[in-house]
Amino acid sequence: MKGHWMGRAALAAGLGLLAGQALAADLEERMAPSEATVDFAAQSPWQIRVRGLGVITNDSGSVNGIPGSDLSYSDTVIPELDISYFFTDNIAAELILGTTYANVHADGAIEGLGKVGKAWLLPPTVTLQYHFTDFGAFKPYVGAGVNYSLFYEQSGSGRFSNLDIENKVGAALQVGFDYMLDDHWGVNFDVKKIFLEPKWKVDFDGAPLTGKAKLNPWLVGAGVTYRF
């Protein structure tokens, strides 16, 4: 009888131990964070950046029929907003929005003619980017795309009038990086090259002049990134 009682006690103890382990595993599983929720937050496809942007032009151009003629342009610093959509962890499209102006000056053989005029420029740019994801919080990327530059509020200066710079499509190249401070916030540095050489025309003392403005600006920016 004693042996039979001890066997039953051992069996009961074993069953109790197994039940306790199963209960602990069940509680651990219930208390673990939802993988779907964590992944959804980390993989939101939308991202925005706000940058301060330096627009550095190439200072080159010409007036048709005047050998040695040249043009130069003012450089500016402007705010910029861009919106990115991630198709995958590595592939994204970025829309870049901002507006700036350029003072156009006669240079080279026509330098003595002074300021030609001023024009505002709206250059929306779309790039397709590849983001490298193997460096932790440091996330470099490269991109290429297309720019469409619209010139508006154009005006001549002094003896120049009726300044007209044509709207122009150009190619864009890009390289930059984000350094993420947490899952949402980061800092950004970005450099773009826009290939932009529109035709232009102006009246000088009533006589028409035409030529090409070889702006080809560098866009150098730094700012803040927010990933939704």
From TrEMBL:
Gene Ontology terms: cellular component: outer membrane
InterPro entries given in the database record: OMP/PagP_B-barrel, OMPW
Keywords attached to this entry: Signal
Pfam assignment, any one: OmpW
Protein name: Outer membrane protein
Highest taxon in the source lineage: Bacteria
Signal peptide from the UniProt entry: 1-24
Family: Belongs to the OmpW/AlkL family.
PANTHER family: OUTER MEMBRANE PROTEIN W, PTHR36920
A biological process term (GO) from this entry: transmembrane transport
